[in-house]
Amino acid sequence: VVCLKHGDKYGPDYVNKLNSMVKRNLTLEHEFVCFTENSEGIDDGITILPLPKLPVNGWWYKPMFFDPKLELKGTILFLDLDLIIFENIDKLFTFLPNKFIIIRDFNRYILQNYQKFNSSVFRLETGMHSHVYKDFVTNAPGISSRYQGDQDWIRKCIQKDFNYWPDDWIQSYKWEMRDRR
Hints:
Layout: E1 2-5, H1 12-25, E2 33-36, E3 47-50, E4 75-79, H2 91-94, E5 101-104, E6 117-125, H3 131-138, H4 140-146, H5 150-157, E7 163-164, H6 173-177
Parallel strand pairs: 1-2, 2-3, 5-7
Antiparallel strand pairs: 4-6, 5-6
């Protein structure tokens, strides 16, 4: 299970709380890893790895998880820091094993066949879709200025050989859950 903390938008408490939610809701053996340039305040027991040297900020580091030379090997489940986990997430590892899985963007609540990606939760195997990273590092500043976000870049690069999480597994509080009674 990996997360990404860059800059000051999210403090170490977000990393620590995410780790705590994962511990409570994942029964499978796992390691919790945070990629960051500043590990101050992050709890012991969380593996800290450095961000690569890329001329980008924030979410634009996400293409690094497609780097075939990433220090981690095996199945990687990426989680954004601002998520809330309130039930068991074992199925995020067991659903369609060895496949790239990502959220269908939350605009799906308006447009039924909306096919854009949301990269707040995705799973892949080390080295899968490595062109996402390799193409990105050839012109990171240009790509990050041309695309609205990392998920648009990832979607441009991955046109096939992907699956979406079932829509009801991962939902947006703002767009899909807030008005439920």
